[in-house]
Sequence to fold (641 residues):
Amino acid sequence: MNSFFTIEGILYFGAISLSIIGLFGLLVSKNLFRMLLSLVLFEAGANLVLVLSGFIRNGIAPIFLDGNSGAVMNDPVPQALVLTAIVIGVGVQALALSLIFRVKKHYGSMDMRTIRSKLEREIATQAGVTPPGSNEAPAPVKLVKGEAHE
Amino acid sequence: MNSLVLLVVLPLFAAFIIPVVAKFSPKLSLFTGPVVLCINLLLIMSAWIKVGSGSEAIFLGGFLPPVGIVFYIDHFSLLFSGLIAGMVLIVWPWDAKESRLYSLYMLLSAASFGLVLSADLFNLYVFYELLAVATYGIIAASPISKVPNSSATAASLRYLFISSAGSVMLLLGIAIIYTLTGTLNIAHLATMTTSLDGFAGLSAFALIAIGAGVKAEMFPVNSWVAEVYGTIPRQLSALLAGLVSKLAVILIIRMLLMVFQQQAAFDLLLVVGMLGVISGEMVAWRAKDMIRMLSFSSIAQLGLIFIAFSIAGSKGLWIGMALMLHHLLVKGGLFLMADRFAGHMGKLKGLAKHSPMAAAVFLVFVLSLLGVPPFPGFWIKLLLILNLAEQGGGLYHVAIATILLATVIETAYIFKFVRILYQKADADSTPINKNYSSSYTFAKLFALILLVSMLFVSPISNHLKDIANHSASPHIYINKILPTKQLGDRS
Fold:
């Protein structure tokens, strides 16, 4: 990796950019499903970095090595690790999807801000406190029948 | 010694067998978990005696490191294993309606034991992720009666997003370490710290610290705390704030003590610790109900622990360990007894008259939390400040000022609260929650332990110092896990 424009440099750049895009999306987007997709991207980026750590140009899989050919092999350990990480990731994403489904069913919204404010109100009511920031908050707008919901 | 593998295996096995057992006999499935935890406690006690003042390494499956996976056992890891078993037993959901919840608790304890014992970085990641998944499930499955089911789900979902992002950061940090060194065995890493000196190594540590910091309520990534603790039963909050946060701290300090003994890493912990202390105390000061106050005070206490670990070497571990145990006892106890209190501060007027015992127990906890002289909390805070003063450098002295300022804020809001307890009851005060659960008894037990430990401050502190001296030494760690002949073979 003495020069940036080697194949490794480009791959590393791509993997790290992917994870930065994912993290950025997670911070910026408000839609639950988009947040989940950002998480998927973030995870994919991290997995790529992990699998790249064992990558050697022109290396071959160790199983095809006959032992004395002198060929370089790719490190098999990160490949095993990344498999585990992918499986864990899939599990967490499935769990997140099912939770999103239930949240959407109850709150009727996919918007994180709406859900968060409703959640805070519920917690405050349960504790017997006026919801935080309610003095300054604008009065709730009542929907007139016939008006668009969105 | 190999029987200690059962600490992880038994709960894991129980987690998957409980749903099957529940089909035939719900009663039996209820008792499987506590029985397993009691067996684990016995195993831990026998190992505690066998290990003595030394340590042991267990090579799983007979594969030697750095290829094989290792469990490292000393008094530090055994102490926290014992605390896991005890704490899960205390908060065991006896009145849960579904057996699936028992499975999740078993999964949580299996992951926790693994997290404390393992000496392999990727193994730690897997156990951390397992712990996280079990926690999401438990949070979503056990809402308190007063809020709708779905708010626990929403809190769990928000927690999931933050915590999974943290796990991915942890993974990224591990990937960077593997790229730089080619190994994930912590002892092996400890022998090649020089290759982790640069910017890349430090960024790996930062990623690991912030990634695991999500669970440890670290400063920038703790927005889940109030929401989650507000929607789950108090006993569960006691478990999460008291114990699970400490496990994440243990992950971070393992890396810090063994691999990243460098000033930049200490500074990072010091800064996030100070920010956590100040921000936590500020929000707690404004809180109007007890749970919110406790949640944010817990963030502040974790910040204090991070400050302690920024002191290099075994001293940091010594003070940090004392702080962790103290916080576990105090915050665990406070959350456990929160069940007895009605919640909103205004309603708590006259509590001392209704139940002088509850008010007294509360006072014992908060006085120790503040660090009022005879209580253990005072000695720990004194020790922390003295040792911070010994360190050179302005940042450490800023930390002292921060701690003192935070103590002032803490005193302000806690005594505001205490004053309410001792006021005369008025019309709308309903201080006592009549149908509280058994956890209040455990809170009293915690207070008793705290009072008794007051008498034995110096032996306890000496013992902790011995444990810290042993556990903070990379030499012993490397010698046990990678005996020198092996190192010779490899190089």
About this structure: DSSP finds 21 helices and two strands in chain B. Chain B touches chain A through 52 residues (CB under 8 Å). The mean pLDDT of chain B is 85. The first helix of chain B runs from residue 6 to 24.
